Amino acid sequence: xxxxIFSMVALFLASFSLTSCLDEVKDNPVTYxxxxxxxxxxxKSATLADNEYDYTAVRTLTSDGKDLFYIVRxxxxxxxxxxxIKTLFVNKPDSVESLPDVGMFEAFSETTFFGDGQNGTDAVxxxxxxxxxxxxxxxxxxxxxxxxxxxxxxxxxxxxxxxxLAGYWEGKGETGKYMYVLFDENVGILxxxxxxxxxxxxxxxxxxxxxxxxxxDSGIVVxxxxxxxxxxxxxxxxxxxxxxxxFASDSEPETFTPVKVGNYTSMFFSDNEGxxxxxxxxxxxSDKKRTKFGVAPFIDNEGGILFEVEREPNDDGNYxxxxxxxxxxxxxxxxxxxxxxxxxxxxFDGQKTYYLNLIFFVSAxxxxxxxxxxxxxxxxKVTGNYEESDEAPKKVIFDSKNRMHFAAEHAMKTxxxxxLSDRKMKK
Length: 427
Prior knowledge:
By secondary structure, this protein is mainly beta. The chain is built from one helix and 31 strands.
């Protein structure tokens, strides 16, 4: 485990040019501010980038005095996710480890919001990191899973901030007063653990720092406030006790609905004469984010490939897009699975065509279209609206591992990839 932790920390530091690398610490020691990442506190997004979410990270103690670290994500106003509040991460007990020599700490969890083994998702563990940046004033917050970066955010320590509550919280007083609340849905049990679950009304007073929870049926009132250790203390009928976040928010896999049919054209899988490989495919649209699409199948991968289209057109009237990497489903005899992605082009409305200029790569390197061009001109041309049939896919679920799964088996099969061995590799 220590070896694994060391390698992940080295990756984290090197990836974001933070204050030091582990092999330089001894020769170039850095003195970090006393009020650092090893102290209880609240950190909040500091970036002005045009992204959809703000993040809040809280380092505190559980009701029994153990280290606690949790991360909350909030949808920004004016975005498709406005009003969405989720707890992404709650650390596993005794998993928080401070690394003062490199100005950071880390925490681990066996499940996260990105996958808890429910609702069609796999159990996705996470490693959370909070570290000083070079200026010794700002911080970087990052959540990873299995070496994959789930998000990275610049954050600053904030004082007198009341973190929004999400996920599952629980606490019990010495006389048995009890609360167990799922703040995502405002439901829970108040007063006594044998009481029935009920709907709740939750309100925040940002000026006084008080959260008020009222049982809609029972009339029981709970007030919550942060203490000096950044713990939430709940008061029920005069008894006050610390409550803890015990689980992240329930995983909600992204669902895609088929909207169009058309033909996918691949130059990467063209034949020896240079004729492109063309096959029928389906265009899917995210039920959560209307600018997010998937085309399936993607060569021999019936799970498809995802891309996101800009909301507004460019000066030429076309819409830029970015592509997420996906397996092609074809395995090279020497280099293993071939992937496509990490590039983009756009949607040309006049041609009803999505142009996906893709880079194809394997573990050993990437392929080149020509000596001077690495990306391959791939495209999906819409030919009509999707019509349901017994053979066609009904829904696709997108999970945190960047895979797409058919809820009904896709009827179309492909057989591409026979000429890949002729491609030149770029090291």
